Amino acid sequence: MNSISEIAFLAKRAAQNAGFDLCGVAPVADSPELAYFADWIAAGHAGEMKYLEARSETTSAEGNSLKRSSLAHTAPWARSIVVCAINYNTEQPYSTQVHDLRRGWISRYALSGGDYHDSVMRRLRLVEAALRAAASDQDIKPEDLITRCYVDTGPIVERVYAKYAGVGWIGKNTCIINQKKGSWLFLGVILTSLELQPDMPAPDRCGTCTRCITACPTDAFVGPYQLDANKCIAYLTIEKRGAAPEELRAGIGRQVFGCDICQDVCPWNRKAPATPEADFQARPELVNPALDWLAEMSEEEFRLIFRKSALRRTKRSGLRRNAVVAMGNSGNAEFLPVVEKLASDEDEVVAENARWARNELLKGSI
Ligand code: SF4
Ligand code: SF4
Q1: Alpha-carbon distance values, 254 to 99, 108, 173, 233, 264 (Å)
Q2: What's the gap in Å between 17 CA and the centre of ligand 1?
Q3: Residues lining ligand 2, Cβ inside 6 A
Q4: Which of 309, 274, 257, 85 is CA-nearest to residue 186?
Q5: What's the CA-to-centroid distance between 354 and ligand 2, angstroms?
Q6: Ligand 1 center to 110 CA (angstroms)
Q7: Closest ligand 1 atom to the C-alpha of 212?
């Protein structure tokens, strides 16, 4: 085994020992998917997620490039990317299987109530240490080796490199899908100046299937592999500030944080294994939470319950807004007294959505 193969092999073994389910190496190269990312931003499909539009300070002939569309400016030293993936699926029903009108849905990745960034980064650091040790064994001086670890926060479209590292293909639902593990995967990446032996890209196995596109309740797919975040429930319930656009409220259904529908219907998730990892086990109160509980949650309770959770991102106002919209979509007239009360809530976003919810519930009870 030559040195670039041996270091890659040792990094993968370290990833397995650290608890990752999958690991592969991608070369640093611009690809059609990264070119599409720039087009996607230009088309306005990223909505208010301005961080995705961050641009490099270095000016090239074409102007300042998007940081995420090429590593050439942001990490010119990078030669390889080690992509690690860990399964977060637990034995909970899919959102498409639960029909209790009093309850909402929180996206699977947030059910543990913990911060997955910490769990993934902790493991990634172990792989980074092993990579550096393996390089040192090959007489590469520490000062000649650069490594950077990222979980979601790097100037990089992780799923593109996950594809080229052989971790999985990018499905028509735009998620990374692995043939054996499905798509419930957290990704972590290590950029390195080492030129490691790359893996083969994962072949696309979507075939003629279009289930995800058909199932999307807000028609957020512009086409296969192309998502308009402005219409996606995950964006509307997590990233979007202020009132939900009225024309999309009905499609949001009872999703109160994120949306898993296009993954729930994917045939590759039918037999997705459940993880035994303690960090990712669901907290019972977050699985199908009662909508009136969320809508009337105090600031103190929100802080206490979601102290470390991904749900902090939507803030209490956003979560209450989402719960009110979900009540409006529930068709459950039992919520009328609550939405009536919330229609004059001091939070105008909650109040406006509550007035809409009241009208929806009244329409349903005529
Ligand atoms: S996450 Fe939900 S809303 Fe977004 S594309 Fe998938 S099914 Fe549609
Ligand atoms: S539902 Fe079908 S088309 Fe969509 S990602 Fe899964 S396999 Fe691909």
Answers
A1: 10, 14, 20, 10, 15
A2: 34
A3: 171-173, 206, 209-212, 265-268
A4: 85
A5: 35
A6: 16
A7: 7
Nearest 5 degrees, angle CA 170-CA 176-CA 178?
105
Strand, coil or helix: 58: strand
pLDDT band of residue 70 (cuts 50, 70, 90) is: confident
Cα 8 to ligand 2 centroid, rounded to whole Å: 31
Asked if 152 is an active-site residue, the reply is yes
Please name the residues in contact with 68: beta carbons below 8 A apart, sequence gap of 6 or more: 34, 37, 52, 54, 155, 156, 157
- Exposed, middle or buried by CB within 10 Å (0-12, 13-18, 19+), for 29? middle
Q: Please list the alpha-helical segments (H only) found in the chain.
A: 3-17, 32-42, 71-74, 116-137, 158-164, 211-215, 233-234, 246-252, 261-264, 291-295, 299-305, 315-330, 336-342, 348-365
**pTM (predicted TM-score):** 0.93
- Say how far residue 79 (Cα) sits from the centre of its chain: 26
d(CA 78, CA 198): 13
pLDDT of residue 64: 64
Question: Shortest CA distance to 6 belongs to which of 136, 201, 149?
Answer: 136
Q: Which of 232, 254, 255, 269 to mutate to test the pocket of ligand 1 (most atoms within 8 A of CB)?
A: 232
60 φ/ψ angles, rounded to the nearest 5 degrees? -110, -175
- Sort 241 into a burial class: Cβ within 10 Å, 0-12 / 13-18 / 19+: exposed
Pocket test for ligand 1, best of 106, 252, 260, 262 (most atoms within 8 A of CB): 262
Q: Looking at ligand 1, which residue's alpha carbon is closest to its atom 8?
A: 216
- As a 3-state breakdown, the chain gives helix, strand, coil percent values, each rounded to 5, of 45, 15, 40
Cα gap 197→34, rounded to integer Å: 22
**Over the stretch 18-55, which tens digit does the pLDDT of each residue have?**
999 999 999 998 888 888 888 888 888 888 787 787 77
